[in-house]
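task queued by scheduler; priority normal; single chain, no ligands, no partner chains; default sampling; output format set to structure tokens
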Amino acid sequence: MRFEATVIHRMGMPYALGTFQGKAGVSVVCATEDHGPAVVSQPPYASARTLVDGPGGCMALVSDPDAPAELWAVMGCFVGYRFQGGGIYRIRGGELSRAADLPFAHRIGVVRRGGSRLLVAANLAADKKDAADWTRPGAVYAAELGAPEGRLVLEPVLEGVHRNHGFLVTQLEGKDCVLIGCAEGLFALDLEAGGPGWTSRQVLPQEVSEVAVADLDGDGADELVTIEPFHGSALRVYHRSGKRWEPFWEAEISFGHCVLAGAFQGQQSVLVSNRTGSKDLLLFQFSRENPSRPARVVVDAGAAAANMLVLRWDGRDRIFSANQAAGALVMYTPGSPGVS
């Protein structure tokens, strides 16, 4: 498989990606981790315009399923772990408002639990003296949504987690949950139980930086896909065997960042970025006949993508990527003669 690359917009240090429902279709938003704006691109994704100015330092962008024209964002977290001024922001109608303070915030998601709509947020640490300091653990927080205005009230639901980086709202083994990857392992926060106390269970005991879930071998049961350890060198796929998750495939990566799994152009696939070393953006495509030997496709050599998302448009799955090497938001379209 070959890809054609379309440079949508050039910007310094693109990092976060998200989508929301715009008038012209699904809009793709990209924001910098430096000081600067968030930009938005609409179909046919040939260019972008400024959505909101600053403050920048954007780590995450997510839409609300019940308000698809709105976005939630983590901003104020700047390069070099200058995250002390981090917070959660709401973007609505091109207007930006700060909804909560959360130093070292990194990931967010909108969920339903016990009949309530909640924003769940995770921070990497409570504080850091320098980049190497991980002595003060982070936590996972939840806040009720509903009021159109006002500040969020964040309450801790999982505490004492270090390098709290992996975050995925998903289903695992038939249950709605939030997966949290950290130094203490991979945890599942139960979204199906109500009440004030949240329950969690450890899914994997080792450090996990990122996680995805998909049925890669076609047996009807989902696999776990992880990057290990923090910003790690191992891309692993786990299959459920009895009561345990057993690894059945892995690949070497360099500063692995962002992993996505699921169907791409009809074939079960894993998309992952190397932020150092080769800096290649890689797609692994799995077959039902031999799932332990996936095909390896270089989507773009040297992209150094910070984050990616996959969106189907005009009959084909497209990869949108925040490429730090080139300082660009790029769309990759499969089935073309080559990468331009």
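post-processing summary
- The longest strand covers residues 14-22.
- The radius of gyration is 19 Å.
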